[in-house]
Amino acid sequence: MPPPSASRPGLYVHVPFCAQVCPYCDFSVLRGGEPARRRYVEHLLAEVPLAAADWSDPTPFDTVYFGGGTPSILPAAELVRVLETCRRHLPLVDEPWTCLEANPEDVTPESCAEWRGLGVRMLSLGVQSFDDAALRFLERAHDSGRARAAVETALAAGFATVSVDLIYGLPDQDEAAWRRQLEALVALAPDHVSCYQLTIHPRTRFGVAAARGKLRELPDERQAALFELTHRFLADAGWPAYEVSNFARGPEHRSRHNRKYWDHTPYLGLGPSAHSLAVATPTSARRFWNELRTPHWERRLAAGERPLEGEERLGPRELATEALMLGLRTAEGVDLDAFTQRYGFDLEASNAPLLVELQASGQLVLRDRRLVPALSGLAVADGLAAAFTLPG
Amino acid sequence: MDHIRNFCIIAHIDHGKSTLADRLIQRCGAVDPREFRDQILDSMDLERERGITIKANTVSMPYTARDGRTYELNLIDTPGHVDFSHEVRRSLMSCEGALLIVDASQGVEAQTVANLYLAMELGLQVVPVINKIDLPSADVDRVMEEIDRDLGLDPFASIQVSAKLGTGIDDLLEAIVTQLPPPKGVPEEPLRALLFDAQYDPYRGALLLVRLFDGKLRAGTRVRFMHSGQEHKVEEVGWQRLKHIPVPELSAGEVGYVLAGIKSLSGLAIGDTLTEAERPAAEPVPGYREAKPVVFSSIYPMATDEYEDLTKALEKLKLNDAALIYEKDSSAALGFGFRCGFLGLLHLDVVQERLEREYDLSLILSAPSVRYRIVLADGKEVWVDNPTFYPDPGSIQESYEPYIKATIMTPERYLGTVMELCRERRGVETTFNYLAAGRMEVISQLPLAEVLFDFYDRLKSITQGYGSFDYELLDYRLADLVKVDILVNGEKVDALSQLVHREFARPRALRYCERLASTIPRQQFKIAIQGAIGGQIIARTTINAFRKDVTAKCYGGDISRKRKLLEKQKEGKKRMKMVGAVEIPQAAFVAVLKTEAPADEE
Question: What ipTM score was computed for the predicted complex, to two decimals?
């Protein structure tokens, strides 16, 4: 794990609008017409100098991530204004690695050209499924034909990386049905894939349905089978996983922005619900986050305030806990010596019997002084992290 | 001496013994109405809540009868459970008469009968008292019939009362005076005073309750305990009213308290006889039995940092409970604790509850064990009550276990099931006698170890509450003993080891394994739980590992939330015990070690 100064910070911009709100989504999103979007952009532009005044790290940002919501809903010209404002107030490299999340229905050769012009290197497409029944269940606006066309258009537009998001583990989805999805995906050959297992969050429409007993997540055994199928299939097809839900055709296609979340590289988030991490020393950091709901976020900005909802200080123990929890979700795993050096905790010494047990069960591999999760370990990464003890 | 009546009350649980005692005390004016609280004799909270009397208590009441004379009525309270049969016997021995309470709607019940027989054996005059006549369901005629038929007592001598309303209390007091005999005894003979109870007073030390059979006792007398040989100088004697009232002397036939500067109860033996050191009696009061612990269990605090508190609590409890013994013990899985000896399972139960309630401790108790006599190959003999110290089986020549003579009283219709229960529990020489119409006595020689596992509850349930049980230790007999260990992923959990008869090793081990499997949460790896005798595995269960336990997305805001969840989880882990790499929650030990349900032990 490199010390923080070696990595440049990342900039995240949250665009909270969606044409319709998906029943499984627990992000900060809302439907909003043209006027609401314009109002949002004005507030966002106002947030930049406030956030910048508090950001003392002179290292230039080298990644920009437009996430949502649906950033592709905004006209490219608006995105340009946002970027320009950021560049005025914050240190930004000349050509930051930029990612934009887009819905298939927004993808046309024209929009792609605009986004390319804006510097977008990775276009991340919220395809979710190539199966029409599944898309209806997920209440997506597009159908499978539109999804395929969007991927093809994006690939033809010359982005460095085209990524496709899929959701699996839908009720009644068996291994054969999911395999067909993976086959469709591989046939289109995007550079990067995110496969998220369906999680039912309480405050979503799926959550309500689950509380009423009308919907449930798949049982453990079936989830595990689908998880393993996904990883094996994609690895065999040439898209090895580099994280629990992320797969890339080569290291150059990995999300350069997202990995910052996983190794305590600083990041600054703008827009409602966005989180930021400022790293003071290798063992002290501050995480702070914006108002979750857009109206609250706007009200604070309208009053000339920084729209923060909360913050926390992270000391060596908190950082170490996170590093372990996040590291065990990645194919790189946790570098034991770097971990001890940065956080001051000797994982091996305080978890000797556990390490023996986990290696014997094949969940963890100790390779080149790194704790690397095997596939079965990745499938239970949350539990792995919980099983470890930090001394003291 | 003619003005003294020493009596006790015999009753089934809930038949209103304490309420009746309250009423008698009130009527005699032995207590100021403002100080009165219900069930005044049951001084421990636990007793008041459970409605059972654990520790005998005693009170003297002055009563002016219809003949115009004032009598001294000594009510000697008796504990109501088999573990305390020593104390029951001691209490009954101090009396000339007994009131036998029968509930007007429930009728004669089993527990009453055992103590009635004991009372009759000791030659007490018994007055039947029909209580709760105010209840709508009261059926006095039927109950009188039962008194005649089942108990062989004169139903027309019975007194009908409602202790709750106070009805009939005057008639009862008269009956105590007229029907019960006064004590006998010779004041001029050398002193013989039976120690039938002792209480601990933080300011004055041990307060001895005695019944004088012969002689006199006054302050300044040097007394000797005839069994223990201890000598003390008496500082004060008096009557045990609700307050202590010092008197110049106690005389033959009387009941009272003695203070003799004794600092703790631990050296005292209930049942011992006090005599004058200068002029000792020839023989003590007969029937003395040493109260020996027969049940052993290790007590551990749930949280290891409560060990100091447990130590202090036991020290305090010991002051009040001479029968409790303990010594330091430690377990790899449960940390430091104490190995304790008890008179029986109820005694164990009472100690546990008192520690938990009065001292606010959370405890784990290991499986109760008896004390085994083990003869080693080299001829040496060792006593083992703790599986940890069980010798290497290769070095053992023979093992012996304690047997009891169990006396079970039951209605005839349950005879078959009671005999079967004795057989299941390895009972031998099981015989039965007819006592009265429809009532049987079953006598069986049983290994005490098999009685430890809720034999009493089982008996109650198969006889629908009518069975009563008493036992005395007989002797030690050859036992086919094995030590069963419980292994979690190959690591022995020392606190779960137990010594059992070979025949029961497998089912017992399997039950432990299954209970652990159902209470240890799934973990990162498969957990094998095994029961073993030495190297031989006799039972096995497994807990499968989680196969899927990972959040799909973990970006920005998810990280703090996830970390906090993890921190909470880790906080919970602190209360877990580690066996190798396996986390075992305290709840698993509690589930395994709680009283056995033997239904599946056959």
Answer: 0.91
